[in-house]
Amino acid sequence: MNHGSLPPGPPLPAFLQTIMWAVAPTKFGKACMDRYGSLFTARILGFGSIVYICTPDGIRRILRDDADNFDAAAANKSIRFLVGDHSLLMSEGAAHTRRRRVLMRPLHGDNVAGYVELMESIVEQEIRRWAGKSRIRLLERFQRVTLEVMMRAVFGITDSSRLDRLRVLVPRLLDINPLIILLPASRRRFGGLGPWAAFQRLLAEVDEIIFAEIAERRAAGGHQGADVVSILLARSDEDAVSDQELRDHLVTLLAVGQETTATQLAWFFERVLRTPDVLDRVVTAVGTGDWKFVDAAIHESVRVRPTTMDLGRVTKQVWQAHGYAFPPGTMFAVSLGLLHLSPDLHERPGDYSVDRFYPAEPPSTHFLPFGGGSHRCLGASLAMVEMRTIIGTILRHVRLGPARWRAERISPKGPMLVPARGTEVVVVENRLTEREPAWTAR
Ligand code: HEM
């Protein structure tokens, strides 16, 4: 047993590792995995030593069996200033369990099914803006669509001036200057001029809108809708939520649920449009309602092109695994991304090959797109329903082609890995605008 020492990793100076990690995290992680195996240590400025782990057994122990010995909130603390103290991302133990129970109901699959009609109309409205033969970047279109779904279906906001302001403010709010996240010392107002002061002004504006919405809905006694705000405001007993807690939940959902879904959708099209035989099969599956195949195509795109590679965890007590005794305070990167790209678990792991997920699914130990254990993604059902609905609606009305055949580079943007050209496509044919030529350009 190795006491006190950490697994080997690249011997490069920390600043070089940090640059490689920041510029090309997937390449960096894969190169380390090829060289050192499924357990290695990277040294990243601002974080110190991070132990990467991507064995199915190690991941299962951290997320499930030994989860009590790992702090997820400590690993998320760099965004506490955005999501707030009551956020699920900041909660552990009993408080976390209670908050999850409260949020579970509106995000449950049965409830989310009720959002589909509104989602379809939001996507159709977006598609009407796509002129035939034009080039568009799907990522920015999907960001608009998923924000709209979040505000109108998930939050139930109908006030048009609030929606208009949030459409402008939320993308700016979430485009946080990385300096603020990585360097807590930069969180100073500098006479109202620096990035922190600008962020604070934006946050105050968004908060004002959210609190106004909550106050109005509370005063009206909720409106018995199926959205998160209505359902949470209707809770009495010990599960009643305060305005501040509800605000923290809504901002958390915006922070973790909106751009992830938009980016994953962009990657789906980036991959599928470059694999014409799979595209044909997905179009047929949408026509026949074979959603199992569509899900397989989505899952495979999440496997080869994840929006984030790792989940952060910090040990509370000594943790013994793989011949090491990791001391308390050890920072782990639970690398779902590397697990999914491991050549030991997946044949030709770099290929986009839908049949590995269809008709049989891979074992859940080898593929965990939404994590696992007590912090498993609470929006998994919503994300899948939303991606299916958006993909289905687009493929029913529009024929798209890649703007170029070369794969788009994986490019880090904040905590997200996005297609470098934003999934640039050509609109080959748009039957929705051709049938209904009265679309309104913006
Ligand atoms: C394709 C899109 C998405 C992916 C790949 C994804 C993935 C994940 C993963 C891997 C986690 C686990 C984090 C951890 O264990 O530390 C997570 C947590 C979470 N996700 Fe998602 N997510 C997606 C969309 C959504 C959506 C649409 C929502 C809700 C609107 C959402 C809400 C959450 C919440 C609230 C948590 C924290 C759960 C907790 O800490 O108890 N996610 N997500």
The CATH superfamily is Cytochrome P450
Question: Given the helix and strand composition, which structural class is it?
Answer: alpha+beta
> What value does the Rg take, in angstroms?
22 Å
Q: Output mean pLDDT.
A: 92
Number of β-strand runs: 13
CATH names the topology as Cytochrome p450
Ions, cofactors and other ligands present here are: protoporphyrin IX containing FE
Number of helices: 19
This entry's quaternary arrangement is single chain
What is the class in the CATH system? Mainly Alpha
Query: Which consecutive residue ranges, at least 5 long each, have pLDDT under 50?
Result: 437-442
Query: CA-to-CA gap between the ends?
Result: 64 Å
Number of domains: 1
Shape: globular
Strand order of the largest sheet: 2-3-9-6-4
CATH architecture: Orthogonal Bundle
Summarize the structure in words.
This protein is α+β, with helices and mostly antiparallel strands. It has a single domain, classed as Cytochrome p450 (Orthogonal Bundle), CATH 1.10.630.10. Helices cover 51% and strands 13% of the residues. It has 19 helices and 13 strands. The protein has helices spanning 14-23, 25-36, 56-65, 72-76, 80-83, 93-107, 109-112, 116-127, 138-154, 160-174, 178-182, 195-219, 228-233, 243-272, 276-288, 291-304, 336-340, 380-397, 431-435; strands at 2-3, 39-44, 48-53, 70-71, 135-137, 310-315, 319-321, 324-326, 331-335, 398-402, 410-413, 416-419, 424-430. The strands form four sheets. It has a five-stranded mixed β-sheet with strand order 2-3-9-6-4. The protein has a three-stranded mixed β-sheet with strand order 1-8-7, with no helix packed on it. Mean pLDDT is 92; it is low at 437-442.
